[in-house]
Amino acid sequence: MAMMRYAEALNAALREEMTRDPSVFMFGEDIGRYGGVFKVSKGLMDEFGESRIRDTPISEQAMTAMAVTAAMTGTRPILEIMYADFIPLCMDALVNQASVFGYLWEGQVNMPFVLRTQGGGGVGTGAQHAKSLDSFLAHIPGIKVVAPVTPADAKGLLKAAIRDPQPVIFLEHKLLYNLRGEVPEGDDHIVPIGKARIVQSGKDVSIFATSKMVIEAEAAAKLLAKDGIDAEVIDLRTLRPLDLASIKASIAKTHHAVVVNEGWTFCGYAAELSATIMDHCFDDLDAPVMRVAMPDMPIPYSEPLELAVIPNAAKIAAAARRALA
Amino acid sequence: MANPIRVDSAGGEYMESVVVLEWTAKIGDAVKAGDLLVTVETAKAATEIEVPCDGYLTAIFAETGTEVPLSAVLGLIGVTVEDKAFEGAVAPVAPAPLTPGATAESPVSAAVSPQGSAANNRLIASPAARRQAVHQGVDLRGVRASSPTGRIKLRDLVQVPASQTYGLQAPALSTLPPDDHGPLKIYRSGPKTGTPLVMIHGFGADAQSWFPLERDLARSTPVIRIELPNHGQSPKRRVGSFANLARDITAAFDALHVDDAHIIGHSLGGACALSLADIRPRQIASLTLLAPGGLGAAINGGFVDGLARASRPESLGPWLRLMVADPKIIGDDFVVAAMASRADPTLRAAQQQMARDLFPDATQGFDLRAALARLHCPTRIIWGRADAVLPWQQALAAPGRIGLHLLEATGHVPQLERTDEVLAILRAQLREGVSS
User: Fold this and answer.
1) B75-99 pLDDT per residue, tens
2) Is the dihedral of CA B414, B415, B416, B419 positive or negative?
3) Which of A69, A324, B162, B190 could connect to B218 by a Cys-Cys bridge, CB 3.0–4.6 Å?
4) CB-CB: which of B95, B128, B147 is closest to A255?
5) Backbone angles phi, psi at B293, to 5 degrees
6) E strands of B142-279, at which residues?
7) Are A311 and B107 in contact (CB < 8 Å)?
8) Can you give the pTM of this predicted structure?
9) Model confidence pLDDT, tens digit, residues B311-336
10) How large is the greatest C-alpha to C-alpha distance in chain B, in angstroms?
11) Minimum CA–CA partner of A268 in chain B
């Protein structure tokens, strides 16, 4: 184990996988000489050279199509899209190419690429650099979506994503890069895609959260504990495919569910979780599923306004209390 | 009867609770309709609530400063100074105060508009509480909701007095076989695919009694017949209460693993079908009830006891003929065949016990009218106007959206006496249930 930051854990995963497999290479804007806006690829160009760590011009559409083509032709590309807000520019390659080529050609092509990006708000980056578009991506059959929260999961899930034969969208959060935690060293630390993590066990209410909202859910659980409410916090880790077994087991125990996602409310990832829970756990529910998500509005540039609209621990705790009322 | 003062008329703002700011009258004051009575703070503004009718302010449930859900009763206007009688009055419990940071625009959106469980006569209980009530054999109408939402939750079911449970006190007959807790007998016929029709027969009958309908329907529809416990080839066991019987039926239905099914039930099987549709509403495409039980207290007790006890064709025949408007259609051969299917004395003893448990003192010991009112699937009730077992007038308990087919000169078994008419109604029902 080594204590490292989230960004360093990602860097370690990239270094290990690029060392292990010469077909792994990475490209994106400012990832080479500059080491990435969030320093995830720091030092990798010096170590692996300009052919395996490539700086590209600003064209997310071309970059995503490149990732698809490179993956089809036998390499394992890792594409960094600097902000999740630019994901709409990548959509055609994801929706009409990456997700369907395996099907169209009867499994004759694999699509082993990883699209890394980061989203989320809370630091005054405004309406074009703070969004969480998780539901856009998790909506596409044939594409896996993961969103690690801890440095250990960041490393283990990135290694799993690079080795996966299908396209994997790897969602980071700009407020997680400096988070420190113990990270297992070495090649064999793989976190399987599709497995949730029980952050803390509880008996009264289940809080299912994604990405940075897991941190808020943990803080909410501390607020609730002061009132004697024993909350279970579950980090979904993988948004698609969903770990339904963990969700069902938790609700069978607590009978109350709060779902939390930083994306917009309407047609959002939280809505999908809520509907899935009602499909599978209806008779176990003792209250309606409570949804905590971003209001349907642009993210304000003003930091006080931004903090007022982003889901937080207080809103999650209020939702849990409402479920338990 | 006092009139409630409610908040819900305060405006259509998007809000879930209000804070009481000021009462302009004291308890005991005479008040006039239209006068300002209480001011509440909504999400956007202060709203004034007027006196709904002339009378006296006889109760204040929400004092100044209290936060209450939107549809809470704030107080009562009595006809007299003493009048505090109000059906379903529940003093509102203040919900947990909103945590700082949880603004009124908080995207916590799954909250229901809270309704008291008495609202619209519709019982409001969580799915988990409903399931638990079935397991405990508890009638939820006797359970008080502790939540400010008015919804009955699991915690409300922990300590329910025995007097609120369905009768479990009937002594057991001594000749009963030991309880067999195996699964109920299921018969399948017809095509393998398509939305199936699940049939539940009545007391004293068995799955074979569906033959007139089944032979026709199974040509085009998958047919699944469930046999009640203590009937036909199903296991014999003491059911004790209707709630337990409903649980047996639900378990048998769940074991079918069907996403969607049309349900038809006759008599006691109709009551079972109705409770199944109440417990598993999402899986029911349509419901057809033939002279169903559970819609009133009255039942021909002599018939139930006589049918269960009859050990010879001579004693069975008169009761079978009571079931039809035209006794000539029950010939001696029919009676002998029916007796042969009831030859097992332990079956008859088990059915007698079941009759005592479900129909104590010639009374239907269970009431499903609330469940009938809750139904959303296409539902039809078919009843013979010459029914001598269950009075057809019980069909009138059905809400207006439920179709009633009250057949002339027909007894308790319309599917036997009016096979073609019942088939025509059922085919229409299957079509409607599929398209909806």
Assistant:
1) 888 888 877 776 554 444 444 343 3
2) positive
3) B190
4) B128
5) -80, 170
6) 186-189, 197-200, 223-226, 261-266
7) yes
8) 0.54
9) 888 889 988 999 999 988 888 888 88
10) 80
11) B107
